[in-house]
Design a protein that fits this description.
Number of helices: 15
CATH superfamily of the largest domain: Periplasmic binding protein-like II
Order of helices and strands: HHEEHEEHEHEHHEHEHEHEEEEHHHHH
């Protein structure tokens, strides 16, 4: 049975003819075999969430090993990333949530302009959580429980009597889903969606939790918050009463450990400009294979939270990850080099 990489390789070569190395010297052939990038410049387009940079640095390290010159990444919100790739302002990203951001992908031209290349982080989760103590004391297990004004008031921060839900920054895919949920579940009169800056608001929520106060928030995994507010020990996921997503595609898997979290169980994928993928098969095949576990990225994010948060720190974290996974990383490189032959 062909692998995902095999199918991607065939697709890339099916939409364009790759020029033969007919007029190069033997030395040039040797260089092409090990460094098919041959110094060509590549422009990444990354999200402006610092905690997501780690996976990008792993990808950059491999592309540089293949002989490409990777310029400083452009940064944008998720919709802007797809627009930049489809317009030719950038070449690749490793930050697209396959289901959550599908609207951004389609609006930028979808498969006509972009190539979804591979699964960077499989099995990512998102949803709503509250502290375990409050959940036990008041028998709260569902977002629907917040319809009760007395329950909602437990999570009131600003004194208006409504629950304050730490949610998403404007422009993030989750922002629209949360707003949709509050309407679909009849929660607009008892719950306020606090929008951005997400990590500052979450720092406040963690401080409140440590003072013994109730907290209500949205999050996703992987990231460092899961290492500070530990599921089952500090917090619990809230169920939703039924699946309701803005795009109407309610048949997707939204359950985790038997609980409906309300968001599709998703994966973060690499996405490339289709023109770039056609002309750079080695890069396309490499980016189709890069994969980091949710646990590894969460662990790196916790290092950032604990002070190792400069770009030099993140680059070092990427190199440490590569050093800990040499066989995996080298296999990606060899498959990429084979694609350029």
């Amino acid at each position: 049975m062909p692998t995902q990489t095999d199918m991607l390789y065939k697709r890339i070569h099916g939409i364009t003819a790759i020029a033969a190395f007919s007029a190069v010297t033997l030395a040039g052939v040797a260089q092409a075999a090990t460094a098919p990038g041959n110094g060509e410049k590549i422009t990444p387009v990354f999200s402006n969430v610092a905690e997501e940079r780690f996976r990008g640095e792993v990808a950059i390290a491999g592309l540089e090993e293949l002989g490409y010159e990777v310029v400083d990444p452009k940064e944008a919100e998720y919709a802007g990333m797809m627009t930049a790739l489809s317009s030719g302002e950038g070449d690749f990203s490793v930050h697209l949530w396959d289901k959550l951001h599908d609207g951004f992908f389609q609006q930028a031209g979808g498969d006509r302009a972009l190539l979804k290349a591979g699964s960077i982080i499989p099995g990512v989760l998102q949803g709503y959580l509250i502290d375990r103590k409050t959940a036990a004391e008041h028998n709260i297990g569902s977002l629907n429980d917040l319809k009760d004004p007395e329950i909602a008031k437990l999570f009131d921060i600003d004194g208006d009597g409504k629950a304050d839900l730490v949610g998403c920054n404007p422009g993030w895919g989750c922002q629209g889903v949360i707003d949709h949920h509050l309407k679909a579940y009849g929660l607009e009169n008892t719950v306020t969606h606090l929008q951005g800056p997400y990590f500052e608001r979450m720092a406040d929520a963690i401080a409140r939790y440590r003072e013994g106060m109730p907290i209500l928030y949205y999050t996703w995994v992987p990231q460092w918050i899961a290492g500070v507010l530990v599921e089952g020990k500090d917090v619990i996921w809230l169920e939703v009463p039924f699946t309701s997503l803005p795009d109407g595609n309610n048949d997707v898997v939204t359950s985790y450990k038997g609980r409906n979290l309300g968001f599709a169980v998703d994966e973060v994928i690499s996405v490339l400009s289709l023109d770039f993928a056609k002309t750079h098969p080695a890069a396309a095949v490499f980016l189709s294979q890069v994969q980091i576990s949710a646990g590894d990225e969460s662990a790196e994010n916790l290092k950032m939270k604990n002070g190792e948060d400069s770009i030099d720190d993140i680059k070092r974290h990427a190199q440490e990850w590569i050093s800990a996974h040499p066989d995996q990383f080298n296999d990606w490189l060899e498959r990429a080099r084979a694609a350029a032959k």
